[in-house]
Amino acid sequence: MTGPPRRTPGTVVRAIVALGAPAALTALLVKVGGGQPRDYVFLYLGIVAALGVAWGLVAALLAAAASFLLVDYFFVQPLHTLTIASGEDVINLVVFFTAAGVVGGLGSRRRTSQLRAEALTRQVQAANEELARLSREQAEAAKVAVRLARTEQQVRLLEESDRVRREFLATVSHELRTPLAGVLTTTTVLAGRRELPAAVRDDAASVAEQARRLNRLVGDMLDMARIEGNTLDLHLEHVDLRQAVVAAVDRLHQHAPGRTLDIDVAADTLVVADWDRLGQILDNLLLNANRFAPAATPITVRAQSGARDMVVVRVIDRGPGIADDLRDHVFEHFVRGPAGDDGSGTGLGLAIVRGLVEAQAGRVWVDEPEGGVGTCIAFSLPAAPADAEVPA
Amino acid sequence: MTATSERPAVLVVEDDRVLRQAVVAAVESAGLDVTAVGDGLAAAEELQRTAYDVVLLDLGLPFVDGWRILASLEGRRVPSVIVISARGEERDKVRALDMGADDYLAKPFGADELIARVRAVLRRARPAEPAKSTVVTCGDVAVDLGTQVARRRGEEVRLSPTEFALLAELARNAGVVLDHRSLLQRVWGPTYSGELGYLRAFVHRLRTKLEDDPQRPQVIVTVGRQGYRFGPARG
User: Fold this and answer.
1) Which of A195, A318, A374, B32 could form a disulfide with A297 if both were Cys (CB 3.0 to 4.6 A apart)?
2) How many CB atoms lie within 10 A of CB A159?
3) Where among A183, A207, A231 does a domain terminate?
4) What span, in angstroms and rounded, lies between the C-alpha atoms of B206 and B195?
5) In angstroms, what separates the C-alpha of A321 from chain B's closest C-alpha?
6) What is the predicted ipTM?
7) What is the mean pLDDT of chain A?
8) A219: nearest CA partner in chain B
């Protein structure tokens, strides 16, 4: 490695120095005096050689010419003229000038070689730096490639784990529901056989009811596993909320034909949701309300625009309400209200509601019922623009 | 109806022995002829040999799985297919309907529910009162409500019983918008009003078979969020 290239003086400066240095030497020698002028030649030769090495042939020749004239004028007889009396002095001066030219030329060649070497060194240095930079970049690229490969491996593992989890849940569902299907279909066939004694048919109907209840529990537990394992299959789209509420009310009426339901949802209220999972949320809330509220009381489903482009849906009943100490826990697993429950619930309904609402970017909470009577469960979902397309 | 009996014939394809027996008992209790097989190969042979009105088809079967049986029945007039599955995956239901199943029943189910579904597909396939031989047309599609045949450019279009039932309901009300809920209740039954997935799957299938460009339908037109209409608006 070499240092930064030396700055060389300009042509004018070099010329001044080439002429000035012999002049300065001459002034010094004239002042000091003494010694043989012939000996001075070596001092001039030294200046020429130094300039030749430092600045090249032109500077050396310029200094040699100046030295020649100055020596001739000040030290060669006759003094103070440019005339040379002795033939020996002529030869001496010619030899001096030639020697100066040769020394300057050699110095100049050395100088050129030095400059070439310096340029080469700089090129090698630049190449080394480029090589080092490429090495660093290569190392960085290798690190990025390793990180990418690790990330890809993690994604593959997650996908595989997700697939295994889904497959596992599907298998669990199959393995639990197949025997349940045998029990439920068989017992419902028995319960319908009029040739059997009534007591047997009643017992068969009881077993069938327990099988249905067990199936609800299996379904709810599988849904909780999907929610907690983030393996819900959500098909989010623009959903007409009123249509979804009407469909859920239709389903509730199949279980409870006599129940009065008030729907206060404006037409063209659009939300971003999964149609089936929104239906499940509404079913769970309506079944809860139907389970706890006295049969003669109405259930209201109301939707209003909320803050931050959300639509808030409230399911309101006139039942016994939720005890204060339960309000903060109703959305947890297996938390049940003590009063009015007919035992048909699994204790997971509201936990599933919360999981499904939150998976669809909404929120669910216990709201204050109107007039302080009954229960009001509210949930929010993102609103879709009023002019949004719904799927064909 | 099968050639040998006035009673509708039902084929039960289910590998679980207990459930198969229970389903057979339930179907018999409804006064229908029933045959049961326990694997896909036997089902394929049985379907080759005998004309059934309804197939109750499990999906996970030995030898030949239920999906392949379902695919082999695409475009048939009979039998109606009700898929029965315990996997509980919503995507299975969507796939089954897309592949032409007439209905999807998740296990477990009670005998009453099963019989109601069987009767519903039978009703769709054989309306109690055949319509007069009225032909409703839209462009080069003609729907004969009497003979229950749809034609496109004179060629018969192969439709499943439920596909034809939906098309017929729309054609009977040509030019009028039918909302989703009404269509589901009229074609599938009163308990189906929320099953938008059924309607979408069958409209998609009908468009694929009837429209020149299913992306720009002219025969079964989507009318905003309200519903569907057969042909251009009336009046």
Assistant:
1) A318
2) 10
3) A231
4) 17
5) 29
6) 0.84
7) 85
8) B88
Which residues constitute the domain of residue A308? 236-382
Residue A338 one-letter amino acid:
P
In a domain? residue A390: no
Residue B16: which domain range? 9-125
Counting the structural domains of chain B, the total is 2
Domain boundary among B125, B145, B179: B125
Residue B82 burial class via C-beta count within 10 angstroms: exposed 0-12, middle 13-18, buried 19 and up: buried
Q: Residue B123's pLDDT is what?
A: 87
Contact B225 A240 (CB under 8 A): yes
CB contact under 8 A, B87 and A183: no
Other beta carbons within 10 angstroms of residue B211's beta carbon come to 17
Q: Which pLDDT value is given to residue A160?
A: 86
Specify whether B114 is located in the same domain as B61: yes
Q: Is A126 helix (H, G, I), strand (E, B) or coil?
A: helix
Nearest neighbour of B108 by CB, restricted to A169, A180, A251: A180
Given this model, what pLDDT does residue B26 score? Answer: 94
Chain B residues with beta carbon closer than 8 angstroms to that of A390: 224-225
CA B150, CA A26: separation in Å to the nearest integer? 124
Query: The whole model's pTM is what?
Result: 0.69
**Tally of structural domains, chain A:** 2
Question: Which residue of B lies nearest to A180 if distances are taken between CA atoms?
Answer: B108
Among chain A residues, the shortest Cα distance to B200 is held by A392
* Distance in Å, alpha carbon of B84 to nearest chain A alpha carbon: 10
Given a cut of 50, the residues of chain A with pLDDT beneath it are 1-5
Q: What is the pLDDT of residue A2?
A: 43
Q: Are residues B140 and B38 in the same domain?
A: no
